[in-house]
Amino acid sequence: MLMGKSLVFPGSFLKGVEASLPTACITLKQSVKQIAKPVTWHLSPSGSLKLNTDASVTTGCAVGGGILRDHLGRMVLAFYTKFGHIEVLEAKARALHFGLKLCGQIPCQGLIAEVDLQVLHHLILDKLSARWLLSNVLTSIRNFLHHLQGSVHHVFRETNKIGRASCRERV
């Protein structure tokens, strides 16, 4: 059905996708055709762990949290922490850093870290420069990833609901 410049498809349109998912909505653009694609969180490969982190800033105060799960999706640990008055990019970097630091205290090799801010993902992978304090956090993140034989991946924020909940609900 057409609603303004968006098409809304019923959930049954997405065959093989969980029925509990909401309807998919795509926006039509004249020069670019966009296709609805369901996004879901995926289990990590057997024997590895997956870390999802997130952070938010409200009224100038930043908080962050995350969850570490095994290859069956079972929670290994969850955390929540306050960062004080910083911007959202630094808060998300610090949440990832805090999670990696916790992972370094348990037997954890082949870690997969997922972040929902593409800018942070690029800063880590491309070794781009940033402000001094953020630069130190990014260097430490890279060191932890190397030590844990880990990798970092960008995911859509819709697949990072548990990471978002952990920073908002104070798990």
Describe it.
By secondary structure, the protein is an alpha/beta fold. It contains four helices and eight strands. The strands form two sheets. A five-stranded mixed beta sheet has the order 6-5-4-7-8, sandwiched between helices. Strands 1-2-3 form a three-stranded antiparallel beta sheet, with no helix packed on it. A hairpin with a 2-residue loop joins strand 1 (2-3) and strand 2. The N and C termini lie far apart (40 Å).
Write the layout of secondary structure elements.
Elements (H helix, E strand, L loop, with lengths): L1 E2 L2 E4 L14 E4 L22 E9 L2 E9 L5 E10 L3 H16 L8 E4 L2 H8 L6 H16 L3 E4 L6 H8 L3
Parallel strand pairs: 4-7, 7-8
Antiparallel strand pairs: 1-2, 2-3, 4-5, 5-6
Unreliable spans are 1-28
Output mean pLDDT: 76
Radius of gyration: 18 Å
Task: Count up the helices.
Answer: 4
